[in-house]
């Protein structure tokens, strides 16, 4: 008996018109499932996925498909590794007050979807962090698809490694003290480029300065 191929699936982009079938009969469309499952863009899970897509779009890295368990969120055409975190003052559920803004920055072990194996090294694997804040504070007009309601804070990962080496979360006030580049969507690519190139320069200059 032949051994089945259990390697990673090749995932292609789907479109909303693809049918959901039962016994050869169409019982729905993929777009209907997407609308059912993904319309609440204010909840933490979907807001996070949307934030990744917005950053990927700004960086020209949204042409493929999202890899759920990759060691970093985005890999750009320049091979920069970008980690994306999101937070918001408003949630989709009832609130007694605005949410306090904090982001996860915990170092982690890495899982490779191509091999199914986990690295034992606990670290931050990106070159750049993009902290995406849905800053809008009026629940009646909240719209995560309105990019004017977002602010982006961009920071080289090395700054977190130097200043917050084992820290798991960071509040907005503390993040701002690290002097990230703050921008709207239109300046996001420029900010990430500046931080990524600064990181590359640090790596290239390290052998020269260590002696």
Walk me through what this model shows:
By secondary structure, the chain is of the alpha+beta class. The protein has helices at 30-38, 44-58, 157-163, 172-177, 188-210, and strands at 19-22, 25-29, 74-75, 81-88, 102-104, 111-112, 117-118, 128-134, 150-156, 169-171, 181-183. A hairpin with a 2-residue loop joins strand 1 and strand 2. It contains five helices and eleven strands; from the N terminus they run ββααβββββββαβαβα. It has one domain (27-206). The model is unreliable at 203-211 (pLDDT under 50). The longest helix has 23 residues, at 188-210. Strands 3-4-8-9-11 form a five-stranded mixed sheet. Strands 1-2 form a two-stranded antiparallel sheet. A two-stranded antiparallel sheet has the order 5-10.
Secondary structure elements and their pairing?
Blueprint: E1 19-22, E2 25-29, H1 30-38, H2 44-58, E3 74-75, E4 81-88, E5 102-104, E6 111-112, E7 117-118, E8 128-134, E9 150-156, H3 157-163, E10 169-171, H4 172-177, E11 181-183, H5 188-210
Parallel strand pairs: 4-8
Antiparallel strand pairs: 1-2, 3-4, 5-10, 6-7, 8-9, 9-11
Derived from helix and strand composition plus strand pairing, the structural class reads alpha+beta
Total beta strands = 11
Structurally, the number of domains stands at 1
Written as H for each helix and E for each strand, in order along the chain, the element string is EEHHEEEEEEEHEHEH
Q: Radius of gyration in whole Å, from Cα? A: 20 Å
The share of residues in helices is: 25-40%
> What's the end-to-end separation, in Å?
60 Å
Q: Enumerate how many helices there are, as a single number.
A: 5
Spatial shape: globular
Residue share in β-strands: 15-25%
Protein name: Restriction endonuclease
